[in-house]
Amino acid sequence: MDRSIGELARFVIIALGCAIFGASTGLWLPGLVLSLAIYLAWVFIQQARFDRWLSLGRRGTPPISFGIWGNISDDFYRMQRRHRREKQKLHALLRRVQDSTGALREGIVALENGDDLSWWNPAAARLLNLQPGDEGQALTNFVREPAFVDYLHGAQRDEPLTMRAPGNEERFLQVEVTRFGNNEALVVVRDTTRLFRLEQMRQDFVANVSHELLTPLTVVSGYLETLEASGQAPEKWARPIEQMQQQAERMAALVQDLLVLSKLETSDQQRGSEEVDVGPLVAAVANETRALSNGRHTVVVECSDECVIAGSSKELHSAFANLASNAVRYSPNGGTITLRWWRDIRGGHFSVRDQGLGIAAVHFPRLTERFYRVDSGRDRATGGTGLGLAIVKHVMVRHGGALDIESAPGRGSNFTLHFPPERLSAASAA
Questions:
Q1: How far is CA 375 from CA 119, 257, 357, in A?
Q2: Are residues 372 and 299 in the same domain?
Q3: What is the CATH number of the domain that holds 403?
Q4: Do 290 and 368 share a domain, yes or no?
Q5: Cα 221 to the chain's mean position, in Å?
Q6: Given the DSSP bridges, would you call strands 336-344 and 298-303 parallel, antiparallel or unpaired?
Q7: How many domains are there within the chain?
Q8: What PANTHER family does this protein's entry cite (predicted)?
Q9: Cβ-Cβ contacts under 8 Å for 188 (sequence gap 6 or more)
Q10: Residue 277: which residues within 8 A CB-CB, separation 6 or more?
Q11: Contact 201, 191 (CB under 8 A)
């Protein structure tokens, strides 16, 4: 408002001067025209100087102007200086970010338009063999591992992907993708070669030790059975021999579970090499459950339809049987154990419900860990190995499924296996 008044005052001064000139000469109209012409020429000259400064790239300070154009020049100059300071701060921040990410051991890759390379740090260049001229190309052109392509283009996943490094089969990488913005993504790459080798050593050690324990266990169990059957052992040894047999059987079950778990961890991922008929599988597991229960529980089977699962019959049988045997071990006598199979638009589902003591929700995240015990005393009394749910978890991962747990203290437990629709098909008629 003050600037408009000042500009109006300048125009009034010019008009008054021309009016005085017109009054003294008697030429009113020419005086008025002259005043307007002088004012417009003055405004046009300043506008032209400011426009020339803009067309030259706004180099240096704006031209010195007066009136409203002077005010515009001053405001523009202040905005230019503020923008320059903000730009310098942004460049400094960007340099700090680049310096900090450059010092990271983890590789950082920024993607745009889905999977086009936008930026990466030196660690990512080293791990993925990226070169400075690769910007704008698809990341899948350099990392052609099918599992990585599926992981990058698939839905957001909670678990990272482990794969071999491109161009170096002896190096193992862990990759995690985070989507954000408008079809943009951030890829974090870690070198996990050392951890992978340590895990491989652990798996080999467990497998070898478990295999080597089978022979001495067989010998010990054989001699104990012989002593018991011969009747030549002193009567006071009867109880110790019985306890030794029980512990030998428990040890043998533990070794067998370790061998199964080791095989699941080290063998190739299942791709659906067999067609497993669910009906006979559930019936076989139900018969085994009744035999294990020995009449102490009521075993109910609910199988809604005939269906085939693409996978491994031995692994699926192991997963189903482990859930059922757990229900027998942890359910009081007289309880009901329900084995149920059904199918819907989400896929196929197998559940085992019991009327046992139940499990508090705080234990759910760790139930599938090896040797994790909710109640170690109760597990020892029931003869469990602590590996059953770990085996179930690995089987479901290999079959693209998931394990769901529902339980509460005093209300029993319900363990459900979910299989994706692409793993299922209708059973053929006999």
A1: 51, 20, 11
A2: yes
A3: 3.30.565.10
A4: yes
A5: 46
A6: parallel
A7: 4
A8: PHOSPHATE REGULON SENSOR PROTEIN PHOR
A9: 106, 107, 108, 175, 176, 177, 178
A10: 306, 307, 308, 427
A11: no
Structure tokens at 41: 């020429």
| DSSP, res 345 | T
**pLDDT (tens digit per residue) in 167-215:** 787 888 888 888 887 878 888 888 888 887 877 777 677 677 766 777 7
Q: Residues 152, 211: one domain?
A: no
- Give the separation between CA 14 and CA 24, rounded to whole angstroms: 16
362: which 2 tokens? 């705080």
Over residues 384-423, the pLDDT tens digits come to 667 778 888 888 888 888 889 898 888 888 999 999 888 8
Rounded distance between C-alpha atoms, residue 366 and residue 386, angstroms? 11
**Residue 230 main-chain phi, psi, to 5 deg:** -70, -25
Identify the pLDDT of residue 266: 66
Tokens of 197: 């080798």
Please report the beta strands in 15-120, taking only residues with DSSP state E, as ranges in sequence order.
Answer: 107-112, 116-120
Please give the Cα distance from 378 to 152 (Å, whole number).
45
3-state secondary structure of 231: coil
Tell me the helix, strand and coil percentages in the chain, rounded to 5.
55, 20, 25
Q: Are 315 and 270 in contact (CB under 8 A)?
A: yes
Instruction: Indicate whether 75 and 134 sit together in one domain.
Output: no
Residue with tokens 């295999």: 211
- Residue 229 is inside which H or E element, if any? helix 193-230
Range of the domain at 410: 274-426
Distance CA 244, CA 247 (A): 5
For helices 313-329 and 278-293, the axis angle rounded to 10 degrees is 30
The upper half-sphere exposure of residue 54, i.e. CA atoms within 13 Å in the direction of its Cβ, equals 9
User: Chain-centre distance of CA 206, in angstroms?
Assistant: 28
Give the alpha-carbon dihedral of 290, 292, 297, 302, to 10 degrees: -40
| Residue length of the chain | 430
Q: Say if residue 370 is in the same domain as residue 293.
A: yes
Last residue of a domain, which of 48, 78, 97? 97
With H, G, I as helix, E, B as strand and everything else as coil, classify residue 41: helix
8 Å CB contact between 399 and 392: no
pLDDT confidence of residue 174: 85
Task: Please give the model's pTM, rounded to 2 decimal places.
Answer: 0.57
Does one domain contain both 81 and 219? Answer: no
- Do 375 and 279 belong together in one domain? yes
Handedness of CA 191, 195, 201, 205 (dihedral sign): negative
CATH code: domain of residue 204: 1.10.287.130
250 shares a domain with 128: no
